[in-house]
Design goal:
heterodimer, A: 119 residues, mainly alpha, 5 helices, elongated, disordered N terminus, B: 144 residues, alpha+beta, Alpha-D-Glucose-1,6-Bisphosphate, Chain A, domain 4, 2 domains, 4 helices, 7 strands, 36% strand, disordered C terminus
Chain lengths: 119, 144
């Protein structure tokens, strides 16, 4: 299967957002769905879901088809080739690590502030 | 084809020296990175990280400039010297920003390392996180 050219950086950017990953995840589980149906199952507004879908659409991860008056979205997994998926995973791990570093350093800084105040 | 590097940054509400210790001291590294960590934090120093999966990596320290820059190479085969063809470079930079610290991490070398796409994929596959299940489903979906 030959996938069309994809801008990997934009692809990574598109999937680096936690909310967008939830939209993508739910799309995978449901197949073809409308933004309204997605919003009903997520803690986001329909507008927010539409925005996430637009970003995913621009990088070619999802595709919209019109059925009468409604637009349904589905995932286009051919754009997630092996290497890009690999990179996305490495990037997500760094997100998690940086978040942990942040929590630890901030807890430490708060503890020190309390100590200084007590003196 | 493959992006040359991953860049991430985060603003931390803590002074630079506190963040520096979190990223360089083994007893702190085990709280955000690996299960076990040994590190001789000087240029050319060696270290070792052991992950929950049991997998262990040796580190080769490339730069230690407290409290601004810390860099190491990793994933080279056990017992060999780290080179661009067999390892990834991880660089942390710390910049004061307001009362806090901007921490940036760059992992590079994906374009230089002498691995096949399968090896790169399997590198990414290890040390699983929440992403794994989503990507697993994506992969299954792709095969349909």
């Amino acid at each position: 299967m030959s996938a069309p050219a994809v801008n990997e950086e934009r692809l990574l950017e598109a999937v680096s957002d936690g909310s967008r990953r939830r939209v993508l995840d739910l799309l995978l589980a449901r197949g073809e769905v409308t933004p309204t149906a997605l919003a009903a199952e997520l803690p986001f507004t329909r507008q927010a879901v539409a925005k996430h879908l637009a970003v995913l659409d621009r990088v070619g991860l999802v595709e919209a088809t019109r059925h009468g008056r409604e637009v349904r979205y589905a995932v286009r997994p051919e754009h997630l080739d092996v290497a890009v998926r690999a990179m996305a995973r490495v990037a997500a791990r760094w997100d998690a690590r940086l978040a942990a570093i942040k929590r630890m350093a901030e807890a430490d800084a708060r503890a020190r502030k309390r100590l200084t105040r007590r003196r | 084809m493959i992006p040359a590097q991953i860049e991430k940054d985060v603003l931390i509400d803590a002074p630079v020296d506190v963040v520096w210790r979190v990223i360089t001291e083994p007893d702190q590294i085990v709280q955000w990175f690996s299960e076990e960590a040994e590190i001789d934090a000087k240029p050319g120093g060696h270290g070792r990280l052991v992950f929950r999966s049991g997998e262990s990596y040796q580190l080769q320290v490339e730069a230690v400039e407290p409290p601004r820059r810390f860099a190491f190479r990793w994933v080279q085969p056990q017992g060999s010297i780290a080179r661009p063809e067999n390892s990834m470079l991880v660089e942390f930079t710390l910049e004061p920003e307001g009362e806090g610290t901007r921490l940036r991490v760059v992992e590079s070398g994906f374009d230089k390392i002498d691995w096949s796409d399968e090896q790169k994929a399997s590198y990414a596959e290890r040390h699983t996180d929440g992403w794994e299940s989503l990507l697993g489903r994506l992969r299954d979906f792709a095969k349909r």
